Amino acid sequence: MAGRRARTGRGWDASPPRTGDATTPRPRRGHRAEDADADATPAPPRDEAELAREICLRQLAVRPRTRAELAGALARRGISEEVAAQVLDRYDEVGIIDDAAFARAWVSSRHTGRGLARRALANELRQRGVDGEVASEALGELDEETEAETARALVERKLRATRGEPDAVFRRLVGMLARKGYPPGVAIRAVKEALAAQSAEAAEFAEQIDADALADAEQELDRDSRTLD
């Protein structure tokens, strides 16, 4: 078959394999032999203050934090008290940490968004390590009139979706306000006013609530509010 055209490709007359063919080992991408020693070299230890700052910034990126919250996060990561104090003192100086501003924003946000009263808000601030005097100043911006208006709005909104006998509804609503930190007098008055405006039957019930019923409701409020302490 002399006149037959010679075959090309992978037969007996195939060209030598090109670099990168399966028959030729291909070096690992991005890896050189001389990198082996470098890979085995341990990384130098990180500066503790730098690590502390990094931890704080990650915490603050999620939401504002109090100094106590950041100190707790640093302690859990093994940062020494001395280094933590240095970093947090510096953050205090430049205004990155401001417990007073945190407390004011917390009170405004949680009262507006969740309808929490001063007692519940004080408990939350205490849990976050806010100093008692700082918390009192922030809570002082929430006056009694605003608190009473919020309690009434909460009851009216809840009442639209609540069914049952007036007595059961009354107790359910005062319990709801108690869990949000409202004092007994504020809670009971808000519920009575809302019931009186709902219907003639509810208004009649509200007028007939006697001293014994109020005393029982106040006891329930006290029991519910203890969960805040």
TrEMBL record:
Residue span, RecX third three-helical domain: 145-190
- Has UniProt tagged this entry with the keyword Cytoplasm? yes
Q: Which UniProt keywords apply?
A: Cytoplasm
InterPro entries given in the database record: RecX_HTH_1st, RecX_HTH_2nd, RecX_HTH_3rd, Regulatory_RecX, WH-like_DNA-bd_sf
Taking every annotated instance into account, which residue ranges of this chain make up the domain RecX first three-helical? 52-90
Taxonomically, the superkingdom here is Bacteria
A Gene Ontology term for the protein's cellular component: cytoplasm
The reply to whether DNA repair figures as a keyword in the UniProt entry is no
Subcellular location(s) of the protein: Cytoplasm
**What are the RecX second three-helical domain coordinates in residue numbering?**
98-139
GO process terms (BP): regulation of DNA repair
**Which stretches of sequence are listed as region Disordered?**
1-50
Q: What does this protein do?
A: Modulates RecA activity.
The family this protein is said to belong to:
Belongs to the RecX family.
Q: What is this protein called?
A: Regulatory protein RecX
**What gene, per UniProt, encodes this protein?**
recX
